[in-house]
Specification:
Length: about 290
């Protein structure tokens, strides 16, 4: 099992801390670095947050947050080895052709190191501010994945889809040397079906405790079943578990995930003492 860390992209000193954190964590031996995504947030969040028991978001939306891809570009410039990922980028609220160009440019800056985690989103107010249709986000997400992959060929064929159209004769360069893996996020039944149909892998999100690990395993069973029903090999899927919060019993959390075939865990940045924290995580996972 590979050990990754989520970089904190929010806070008044986020610009400095993201760069410093990336350098510190790569030196400590982490395998991957990930950022989360919000472009705007309302002062008062009314949308239900899907990853809490009461549906409430527990952070202050007024805290400054770096844009995810800009943050990754800065991280790419100061690292050499680690994989760079989004966990997750809210795909249907972004213009897909522009996003394809941005991601291909990131891949050119850090060849072969980019992993794209995508989600359908939950914050209706953010979609409204960006001029995106929250009610159509599921269908748009499916189409956007197809558009990204078409653009990454460098010479996409004409695509006429319900929510987007690519005219013939476009050049979208640079194109990635290797395919950028698309990891579909979400714990719901629709997310599992989307992984099965379109994903190169799956990103789960849960708390870093035994209950969170159990939730990941329950959803993993559904993802693997849907993938088999779709006629694809479940063993070919990459499985990433994004675990939030401070761990209290790493062996109880990571050992069952490793035994179930989870490929990566992404933990919150442990701060000082990162090398020791990463070593403990590897030991807990048996890797």
């Amino acid at each position: 099992m590979r050990i990754g860390c989520r970089l904190a992209t929010s806070g008044s000193e986020a610009g400095r801390s993201v760069v410093a954190g990336a350098m510190r964590l790569e030196a400590a031996g982490v395998d991957s670095l990930w950022v989360s995504d919000h472009v705007v947030q309302p002062v008062e969040i009314r949308s239900a947050y899907p990853y809490s028991s009461d549906g409430r978001a527990e952070w202050d939306p007024a805290v400054p947050q770096l844009e995810a891809l800009v943050a990754l570009a800065a991280v790419a410039a100061v690292t050499k080895r680690v994989e760079l990922g989004t966990a997750v980028l809210v795909l249907p609220q972004r213009q897909p052709v522009l996003l394809a160009k941005q991601l291909a440019s990131l891949d050119a800056l850090a060849p072969g190191r980019l992993a794209l985690g995508v989600g359908a989103g939950w914050l209706a107010e953010e979609f409204q501010a960006l001029g995106a249709d929250f009610s159509a986000r599921g269908a748009a997400m499916d189409e956007w994945i197809d558009v990204l992959r078409a653009c990454w060929t460098g010479r996409p064929e004409r695509l006429a889809l319900p929510h987007v159209e690519l005219p013939a004769g476009l050049v979208v360069e640079p194109s990635p040397g290797d395919a950028i893996p698309v990891l579909v996020g979400g714990m719901s039944a629709p997310a599992a079906r989307r992984v099965a149909r379109r994903g190169d892998g799956w990103i789960a999100q849960a708390s870093c405790d035994p209950a969170g690990a159990a939730a990941v395993l329950a959803s993993l069973d559904r993802v693997l079943t849907e993938t088999e029903l779709a006629g694809r090999d479940p063993a070919a899927l990459r499985v990433v578990a994004r675990l939030s919060g401070a761990p209290t019993d790493l062996p109880a959390v990571l050992a069952p995930l490793a035994a179930a075939g989870v490929d990566d865990v992404v933990l919150d940045d442990p701060g000082a003492g990162a090398a020791e924290a990463i070593a403990r995580a590897r030991e807990a996972a048996g890797s």
